[in-house]
Amino acid sequence: MNGIRYDNIEKKEALKILEGYLDEPGQKRNVFFLNIDCIYKAQNDQDYANILRTKADLVLGDGIGIRLLTRLQGEKMAENLNGTDFSPELMKLAAGKKKSVHLLGGYDGVAEKAGRKFSLLTGVKVAGTHTGYFKDDQRVIDHINNSGADILFVGFGVPQQEKWIIKYRQALKPSICLGVGALFDYNAGRIKRSPRLFRTMHLEWLWRVFMEPARLFHRYFICDIPLLFRLSLSGTKITKDPSWGKPPGKVLHPPGLQT
């Protein structure tokens, strides 16, 4: 596990923390999501593992694999906070605080189309969008910074998105940066999301295998499921100690991850 843990909190608490981040003048925060495949990748990529351990201000639990692993280790997952469902909630919060967002990732036009949908659904101001395929990092950074966005959503896939955020975090001005995977593809309609029944039954991963068997069968059945069994037997703790509540008026954040 390389010491990787997630913040086992409910959505309302996560949003309260993020609201605090938005109210911090001059601070820069990183928010990432953790599922079983992220753990698999981190075991084979020490740079990514180090980012999750030491560079994330908030790591949110994503998916049935994390839920099962948490349960098998004697705890209960407070809430599934996957990026696809959680990101629009953050955008609603941003809209209420008159904050804007920038979407970076996807093929040409995908982020732009997703941005229009997010704006309609959440009321958030989309300050800018950009494809995830580019060669000039500095030009993209300038585009983001000049947009004035307060929150940056990066959808490159794991671990590329996390590595890019951390590599350029000092130069990036948004208060919060998040790695959100296929968020734009789902909301632009490029990838069909599972029916609600599959999500209710915690089988969204199986739907994804049906949709992309050539790419995802190996990921889930050869890599992730065997890893889940190994981790469940190891007894390695996967949740952070929930001992970081602050007095009223103070910002909430996990311990040891302050910038």
Give a topology summary.
Layout lengths: L10 H12 L6 E6 L1 H8 L2 H9 L3 E4 L2 H9 L10 H14 L3 E6 L4 H13 L2 E6 L6 H11 L3 E5 L4 H8 L8 E4 L3 H6 L7 H5 L3 H8 L1 H22 L25
Helix pairs in contact: 1-5, 2-3, 4-12, 11-12
Please tell me about this protein's structure.
This protein has 259 residues and is an alpha/beta fold. It has a single domain, classed as Rossmann fold, CATH 3.40.50.10700. Helices cover 48% and strands 12% of the residues. The protein is built from twelve helices and six strands. Strands 2-1-6-5-3-4 form a six-stranded parallel β-sheet, sandwiched between helices. Helix 1 crosses helix 5, helix 2 crosses helix 3 and helix 11 packs antiparallel against helix 12. It is globular, with a radius of gyration of 18 Å. The model is unreliable at 243-259 (pLDDT under 50).
In short:
With 259 residues, the protein is of the alpha/beta class.
Helix content: 40-55%
Query: Which residues form runs of ≥5 with pLDDT under 50?
Result: 243-259
The CATH class? Alpha Beta
CATH evolutionary superfamily: AF0625-like
Shape: globular
Q: Kindly report the average pLDDT value.
A: 87
Strand percentage:
5-15%
In DSSP terms (H or I, runs of 4 or more residues), the helix count works out at: 12
CATH architecture: 3-Layer(aba) Sandwich
Instruction: State Rg.
Output: 18 Å
Oligomer: single chain
Count of the domains: 1
